Structures are given as structure tokens and as C-alpha cells.
Amino acid sequence: MTCGALLVNMGAIQTTTLRKEFGDVRAVDDLDLTVEQGEVFGFLGHNGAGKSTTINMLLGFLRPTAGDIEVLGHDVTEESRAVRQRTGLLPEGYEPYSNLTGREHVQSAIDAKDADDDPDELLERVGLEPEAARRKAEGYSTGMQQRMSLAVALVGQPDLLILDEPSSGLDPEGVALLREIIRTETERGATVFFSSHILDEVEKVCDRVGILSHGELVAVDTIDNLRSELQAGATVSATLETVPDDLGLDGIDAVRSVAVDDRTVTAECTDARAKMRVLRALDDRGTVADIGIEDASLEALFDQFTGTGETGADETPAEAAAESTPERAVAPDGGGR
Questions:
Q1: 154: number of CA atoms within 13 Å, CB side?
Q2: CA 63, CA 77: separation in Å to the nearest integer?
Q3: In order of start, what are the domains of the chain with their CATH numbers?
Q4: Please, what sign has the CA dihedral across residues 146, 38, 43, 221?
Q5: What letter does residue 101 receive in the DSSP assignment?
Q6: What are the pLDDT digits (tens) for 158-192?
Q7: How far apart are CA 123 and CA 125, in angstroms?
Q8: Residues 6 or more apart whose Cβ sits within 8 Å of residue 266
Q9: Angular region, 201: left φ>0, alpha ψ -120 to 50, beta rest
């Protein structure tokens, strides 16, 4: 049996005025969030922003102070077990049981979910070698622990995958494999909720992103739309054999500035969609010998929305305490971990 009874025309995650307070600290502040079925949603924020607190509430590990949460069609406060049964979780800072092998961890999750997965196939899928899978996890590197934890998260073909810092400790091969697994899971209809500090990785895999700052959702959209909103589209550079007197760029919407250095023309665009119009205009006026296009990075967008250049900044001790994850290993109700 698998838990993959995929939803039809229904959001995978829906929160309404969700709030969580720890004493005087409001870790999550009136969060209204919708994550659609089948999308890869990036959930971003500095340490202490409320990301882990939100994830714990989505899974029913923490009760909200106020507001509503619906995940996979279930009211989390009333049906958290049903939510966890259909969710795969890779938590940040996962600590395996040192006396169990990697294979035993996966088999335990299979038994808890009453699934029919082959543990060896799952471990092979995440790139954990058979010899390593039969060793006790106490000797695992961080990357091996991540691969094993990902295998546990994939048990039962979950409708929702929650991946919290999934690339932590992975080498480039492991990161590429992670991206492939995410593509495969969404192709079958699963939803991926992806929280990471590695913004370059988020940019490569996510359909939309939400940015959390001090418990508040300050932005949610596609990365291209966020670039347009902040007028931070792209910079286009073209080296021409001969620079004409009229570059033909004055009439192009969303071109903020143009600079010429020797034979190189650089145009700063407030909308990424303008970059091809710039290149076509330059090509019409002469031979383009070389081009370069640099889109505004997700890190730059994050900086503008939160006022900090790094996702690990601005943490207070109280916020850090609020971000702790209570679950350590395979939950007895089959909830992943």
C-alpha cells in the first residue's frame, strides 16, 4: 500500500492568518500561504524567521496560537496523523539512531506507513551504496545521513515532500541527484515544499518562492515576477565589431540604462523579458561578436525583500529557540520523522 492518493484541483497547503507565539516572541505572524498541488515551492528566510516553526505546524508537531492550516485536504489541528501519513519529511539537522543501519531506518519507515516499498531500491535511488546501507548509521558522514534521510522521506510515494535544507552535506553529485528526484516526484504529481539557505539551488528547482522575514511573509511569486516587481530584471552585455551612433535601444520598454565601453554595450533591464529585445536591436545594427546575460540573482532579491544579504542573519536567541525541531526520527504514527 502507498500513501499517494494524489489530490485533484486542490491546493496542497493552505494557511489562513496562521500565528505562533513563544512567550513574547511572535515566530509566525498571520501567515496566509497557498502552495499548489504539483509545484516545487521554495520557502526562504534567515535563521529565526519562522521557517521551521511553520513546518512543525504544517505537520501538527506544534499547535498554532491562532489561525487555520489545511494540508492535503486535512485540517492539521484535527487530523495531523492523516497529514503525516501522506507526507515525507527530510528535517534539518536529522540525527539517525546510531544503533540502526541505514536499511533498518528505511524499513522502519516502511513498516510505520504500512507501505510496500523495497528499502534497497529506495537506498539505491538516493545513491547510498549497499555496503553503506548495511552499516550502522553512527559512522555515517553528513552526506550519507542526508541520502538515507531522503530515502526515508520517499517511503510510500508521499503526496507532499517537505525538504528542510536537503542539500546540506551533499557533494555536487548528490545535489544533482536530489534535483533529479524532485523532478521525478513532481512529474507523478507530488508537491515539494523546499526550504533552504542555498539560494542558487532554490533558484534551479523551484516554481515559486515565499520569503519569510521575522515571521511575516514579505513576498511570494515566481522568481521572474519578483525580479520585475523590484525592477531587477537582467543586465545584458554585447561586444560589437563596430558600435553604431544609434544603438536602437531608446524605444525599448524596461531598459533602465545603457553604457558603452570601447566596443561593449551594457544595458540594464528592469524586466528580464526585455533582454532578448535588446539583443535583437543590437544585432540589427551590426555584428555581435560576444554576449553576456546576468539575471538578478535570488540572493539579490532576498536581500531587497528582507534587508539582509544572507539567509542566516538577524537571529535572536528567542527566535532560535522557537525554531527548534522536536522530531528526531521515524514517528510511530508513520509521519516520516
A1: 24
A2: 7
A3: 13-223+304-322 (3.40.50.300), 233-295 (3.30.70.260)
A4: positive
A5: B
A6: 999 999 999 988 999 999 999 999 999 999 999 99
A7: 5
A8: 235, 236, 237, 258, 259, 260
A9: alpha
